[in-house]
Amino acid sequence: MNSRLQYVELNDGRFIPGLGFGTYKPPEVPNSKTTEATKIAIEAGYRHIDCAYAYQVEEEVGLAVRSKIADGTVKREDIFCTSKLWCTFHRPELVQSSLERSLKKFHFDYVDLYLIHYPFSMKVNENGKTIYDHVDLCAVWEAMEKCKDAGLAKSIGVSNFNRRQLEMILNKPGLKYKPVCNQVECHVYHNQRKLLDFCKSKNIVLVAYGALGTQRDKQWVDQSSPVLLDDPVLGALAKKHKRSPALIALRYQLQRGVVVLAQSLKENEIKENIQVERRAVGMWVLYMLLLSSYPGTFLSPPPQKKEIKEYPWKLLNHLTYFKMLPIAFSESFKYMTL
Q1: Pairing relationship of beta strands 15-17 and 7-9 according to DSSP bridges
Q2: How far is 1 from 7, CA to CA, in rounded Å?
Q3: How many other CB atoms are there within 10 angstroms of residue 115's CB atom?
Q4: Can you give the pTM of this predicted structure?
Q5: CATH number of the domain to which 65 belongs
Q6: Residues with catalytic annotation?
């Protein structure tokens, strides 16, 4: 365990680094950039690498990790690697094979954390179109538990779940393992205070993505929405403390007990962001950020439809401070099927 890093204990007794390196990238960016950025991140000291089947870069992330193992920078056990189960593989008989497929791309024997990426399910119909499916979340979770028992995932958790969906898993008869975490969009404009309090009460770690305002991918983010790192309060605090707005935004999460993911493909930003581990800020700074929080999110969810039984955002207080993009969600993910 790297003594320079802040670690958070999970409810299964394992530890997760408080700062993670996010590997999502916009589709127009070459996959090779992910390999380069992940190598830089590991060299800079990141030990928590967040990935997913849907990002389509598991192979590139695995290549970066293996190259840093080969040159002696790290050992496999030093790296905490996360991947996620995509919505088209929720049927219990598909869960383990989906994880095994990801492991083959990584060239790993296991992932440190495997998450259900979204609580709703999808499938490909007879016309080859991706549509919504109805799969019992508790059955999906039981399949996840089997992945842990098989040693393919050291820890298991969820992503983009609301309180009701978490309670559904927690109250499931015969529950073997609780979710260790819930990864959600969380930043100074959308601080998830109620969900964080609930997760803490159940000993579930909240993991924040989009903490720096996302990479503003046109597929997901309204380009007219405010740029989080240009926020005047954030800028004033950064200037006063001689730090970047990004460091203040990341530290805000760590000091709330939130595990936070930092995304960047730029070497200088990757190296700067890890400085958050060594630079605390006063509680009044956090209070100022809470006061300045706008009720808004950056990522546009798919339109709510009656057939989406487990649509998660209706209980997340997903307010529309920022204009939502009209996204044909199922069409966007055609390539993410078998």
Answers
A1: antiparallel
A2: 9
A3: 27
A4: 0.86
A5: 3.20.20.100
A6: 55
Instruction: Please report the pLDDT score of residue 224 as a whole number.
Output: 67
Mean pLDDT for 163-167 is 97
Q: Indicate whether 27 belongs to any domain.
A: yes
Which amino acid does the sequence have at 247? Answer: L
Q: Find out whether 89 and 139 touch, Cβ atoms under 8 Å.
A: no
Residues 83, 147: Cα–Cα separation, whole Å: 13
The annotation places the binding site at 117
Domain assignment present for 1: no
Burial (CB < 10 A; 0-12, 13-18, 19+), residue 168, is middle
Q: Give the model's pLDDT for residue 325.
A: 25
Domain region containing 320: 7-336
The pLDDT of residue 63: 99
Residues contributing to the annotated binding site for substrate: 117
**Is residue 15 within 8 Å of 42, Cβ to Cβ?**
no
Nearest to 288 by CA among 255, 258, 259: 255
* Amino acid, res. 93: E
